[in-house]
Structures are given as C-alpha cells and as structure tokens.
Design brief:
Length: about 200
C-alpha cells in the first residue's frame, strides 16, 4: 500500500507535468513530447497504485506514440515550432463510425472482463472504457480528424468521476479542464475547416 502523502506528491507531480505538456503541445513546442513521456510515467505509477490498471496500460500507449511524435518533430526540426492549423480531413463516414463504435464496445467488454477476472482492478469496465476511447481519440488526433475531440470529450466525461471515486481530486480537476479544452478544440477545428473551405471560393478564377 502506498502512503497517502506519497500518492499526493505523485499525483501533483503527474498533474503539473502533464498540464505543462498539454500547454506546450498547444504552442507546438517540441518539448511537449519528452515532458509528456515523463508525465505518462508518473501517471502510470499513480494508476498502478490506485488499481486503475487499464489507465496504467494506457500510459504505455501514450509513451510509445509520444516517442514517435518526438522523433518525427526532431526529423522536421525547422517546422517543429511553427503554429499551423490541423490538416483538413473529410468527416468520418457512417461505416467508419460503425466500425469504431462496435470495435470500441467489443474491446471495452473484453479488456474489462480480463481485468475483472485476473486482477483486483477498481471498476474494470469503466476503466477499460477510458482506455479504449482514449486510444481511438489518439489515433484520430494523429490523423488530424476533427472527430478526435468528440472522443476526447467522452474520455474526459468518463475520467472525471472515475478519478474522483478513487480520491484523485487533483487529477479529476485536470481532466475537467481537458473536457473544456476538448469542446474548444471541436469548435476551433470546425472553424478552421470552414475558413479553409471558403478560401478557394474567395480566390479569382
């Protein structure tokens, strides 16, 4: 059992590190990646200590994708800090939605059942839903799709009460801010797409 004071210090450290990483990401600063990796390591330790094993597993996924992002940004170093709009992508078609939602439900139930029967995980299916939705959101984000923000809204909606139920009030507060940021991202990316769509029509033929 981890001492409460140690858990508190670990939670504050993870929260501050991840908040800094997200802020740097918004500014397209390459330091977002190594700092994000540190934040994931801290959150991984915190979630293991509080029996949120799916969330701990999720940090491993984020560490791998952050390492890939760090390498890509270093490869493209001259443009790594340039503020650019996300690439325009066509909205997901209904077959993609069906595939994502059906696959998400299947993975959530399967991984939740695994946690239920083989670990002492707290709220295994709830925790599994956070993991599955986060993976979908991260993949869509890497593709530059606006729908990523809908999935991040779901992730944060599930995460806040889950973390509150484990006494992780600071982490819950951070994810509440992420929830607001996801709504802003959905609006901002939609606005950028609308401006991009109007721009060719404004040019003389």
């Amino acid at each position: 059992m981890t001492a409460p004071d140690t858990l508190t210090l670990l939670e504050w450290s993870a929260t501050a590190t991840m908040a800094l990483s997200v802020w740097l990401a918004a500014r397209r600063h390459i330091a977002t990646w190594p700092i994000g990796i540190v934040g994931c390591l801290l959150y991984g330790a915190l979630f293991m200590a509080t029996q949120l094993y799916a969330d701990a597993t999720l940090q491993a996924f984020f560490i791998v994708t952050s390492a890939i992002g760090w390498w890509q940004w270093r490869r493209d170093a001259p443009a790594a800090t340039a503020a650019t709009a996300p690439p325009a992508r066509a909205p997901l078609r209904w077959p993609h939605w069906v595939l994502l939602l059906a696959g998400g439900v299947i993975v959530t139930l399967a991984y939740g059942a695994l946690l239920l029967h083989w670990t002492d995980a707290f709220a295994p299916f709830w925790d599994s839903a956070v993991l599955t939705t986060s993976v979908v959101a991260q993949v869509l984000l890497m593709q530059g799709r606006r729908e990523t923000w809908l999935f991040w809204i779901v992730v944060n909606t599930l995460s806040v009460p889950l973390y509150l139920s484990r006494g992780l009030d600071v982490t819950a507060g951070l994810y509440a801010l992420f929830w607001l940021n996801a709504w802003h991202g959905w609006w901002h990316w939609g606005r950028q797409a609308a401006v991009a769509a109007e721009r060719p029509a404004a040019q003389p033929s």
